[in-house]
Design brief:
By secondary structure, the protein is of the alpha+beta class. Helices cover 46% and strands 24% of the residues.
């Protein structure tokens, strides 16, 4: 019963944010096609958000039908001369057009014009991501973690390779590193692959070689992920950003802004080390030294046991020891308009490169397909982002917009990239591909897209344990 209630609750908390984000991104994508088509003199017959029966629609002064449809997963723009929303040419109808109709027909435009119209959709998604991210950098600032090692895990790969706290990573395999996030991405994506690191230690540069260890770990939803790990943490001083009311830390007198320097006389050089010490204390009374207003203050506290029960209610699923504080976040740095655009372009490029690397590893077989998510997982992520805050939801929309633009450029018939592939053949052959060839390719492309969608959705159902829940109803 609880699961059923959670499902109904999730409709508002998860599905609604997902539909809002998806509608915005589909609108941006199709508006790219629409604007460039109109700029090139193409008549647009339909601008649809969603598929299937129409919910609401209206005609504008140019004769374009703008509408919302019942199936919200996507949209399309139908040009004059298309046989459907996938811009397949209606061969028989095209041959019977008058000169005036040919002038506004998409399929009678020059090759370069048609290619521009098709490419405009993915480009609009890329532009949206860059513009919105740049606006966020100007309004809220950019959070940057310096590429400095703050903690080396005992007996980890990084320690064996020779990394030390205080090392600053300058490059990995020749690629410059400016942020710890870049370092994490390179390690994350290259398990069991030797990497060469150029670092700066005590003002001198040197080289270290290390092979990230393959780690398999479950996220909060229990979905298993494989990634590389060196056992290295960023320089992240244990500065208190929040103290929970009635927590052990609050009762001990810990204040926001305190920097925890030591526990029981042992130095605390990183927030993660603080978490480890608290976890191992098992409620034992701790002597905590904090730095407050340039003066050291000695406090005493004992961690409180926090228990998460298993689904059956009889066994303990997870046990934690907490003192009731959160780390202070690094202060975002607001950027000027020019710098914001430059940083937004660089960030979007890194996001796309990471996604392509993921896809390449899946195709090569070096990474499993468990990370391949579909609409259900995207909806779940949208709900989680909405619960964290608007900023996180906007960041998710940026990532999804980049992925939408990238996927549409894949050379698969029925997608924009498939049309561009056909235009490439047309440029080489000096004539369009035969209608029968295009029709056959479209059917293969449609089958491929549907197969991937079904597979990704099944992945979602399995990884989010929906299949397990349904099976349990009949067992």
């Amino acid at each position: 019963m609880n699961m059923i209630m959670d499902i109904f609750t999730g409709v508002g908390g998860y599905v609604l944010p997902f539909l809002v984000v998806l509608t915005i991104l589909v609108f941006v994508h199709e508006m790219g096609h629409y604007l460039v088509a109109r700029w090139n003199g193409v008549r647009v017959e339909v601008f649809s958000i969603g598929f299937g029966p129409e919910i609401k629609g209206w005609n504008d002064s140019t004769g374009t039908r703008w509408k919302f449809c019942w199936i919200p997963f996507g949209g399309y723009v139908k040009f004059f001369g298309d046989s459907d929303g996938a811009s397949r040419p209606d061969g028989e109808a095209l041959r019977e057009l008058t000169e005036a109709e040919r002038a506004v027909s998409f399929h009678h435009k020059r090759l370069g014009q048609r290619a521009a119209v098709v490419a405009a959709g993915p480009m609009a998604n890329f532009i949206y991501a860059i513009v919105v991210l740049a606006a966020m950098y100007m309004a809220f600032g950019q959070r940057v973690t310096p590429a400095e090692i703050g903690r080396v895990v005992d007996q980890g790969v990084g320690q064996s390779a020779g990394f030390q706290a205080g090392d600053v990573v300058l490059a990995i395999d020749g690629d410059s590193i400016h942020r710890f996030e870049q370092f994490e991405q390179a390690v994350f994506l290259n398990p069991e692959r030797p990497l060469t690191f150029r670092i700066r230690r005590n003002g001198r540069e040197q080289t270290i070689s290390a092979t990230p260890r393959l780690v398999e770990k479950a996220d909060r939803q229990g979905i298993m992920h494989k990634f590389g790990d060196l056992g290295l943490w960023p320089a992240n001083p244990a500065i208190v950003g929040k103290v929970y009311e009635d927590s052990p830390a609050a009762k001990a007198g810990v204040q926001v802004g305190d920097r925890i320097m030591a526990i029981d006389g042992k130095p605390v050089d990183n927030f993660e080390r603080l978490q480890d010490i608290v976890a191992l204390s098992k409620g034992r009374r701790l002597a905590v030294t904090v730095l407050r207003d340039d003066s050291e203050v000695r406090l005493h506290m004992a961690a409180r046991r926090d228990v998460t029960m298993a689904a059956d209610g009889a066994s303990v699923a997870k046990e934690r020891w907490l003192v009731g504080i959160l780390r202070a976040q690094r202060t975002p740095v607001r950027l000027s308009p020019g710098n914001a655009v430059v940083q937004a372009v660089a960030t979007c490029y890194n996001m796309l490169a990471q996604t392509l690397a993921y896809v390449g590893q899946m195709i090569s077989g070096s990474r499993g397909t468990e990370d391949l998510g579909g609409p259900i997982r995207i909806a779940h992520a949208s709900g989680q982002a909405a619960q964290v805050g608007v900023e996180q939801l906007i960041m998710l929309s940026i990532l999804l917009s980049l992925n939408l633009g990238m996927i549409n450029l894949f050379p698969i018939p029925i997608l924009d990239g498939g049309h561009l592939l056909f235009y490439g053949f047309e440029a080489i052959l000096r004539r369009p591909l035969k209608e029968r060839t295009q029709e056959f390719a479209f059917r293969i492309g449609l089958a491929l897209v549907l197969t991937l969608t079904v597979f990704a959705t099944w992945n979602d159902l399995v990884n989010l344990r929906v299949v397990e829940f349904i099976a349990g109803l009949f067992s």
